[in-house]
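User: I'm putting together a teaching handout on how sequence relates to shape, and I'd like one worked example. Could you take DUF3147 family protein from Gottfriedia endophytica, show the sequence you're using, and then write out its predicted structure as tokens right after it?

Assistant: Happy to. First the sequence, then the structure tokens directly below it.
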Amino acid sequence: MSFLIKTTVSALVIGLVTILAKHSPKYGGIVAALPLVSLLSLFWLKVQGEQTGNLSKFLFGVLYGLPGTIILILIVAVALKHSTPFFLSIIMGVGGWGLLLFLQKFLLSGLFSRFQ
């Protein structure tokens, strides 16, 4: 039952954002840029009884993934602006996202290993 409720509420939020974006792409984009998935996930984790320490770790994980997400969105937006086919734009964006996360992990692990 819990899964069904989470899925329904989450789908409704996504549906409302999609409806808003259809009527106003600018404002739909602004609302979509809100950390809706992160906030919904945080809410559902708290409802399930997760400890605040795990909630904090989750949010730091979200912050760790934020630069890659920005790169993905930037690549897809630029590619679409230059009339690149939709699915190729998405593939390029996901590729940029993955590359940045790999580089980020490599750079940060090297940085932190110097201070140990």
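A couple of points you could highlight for students: DSSP finds five helices and no strands in the chain. The mean pLDDT is 87.
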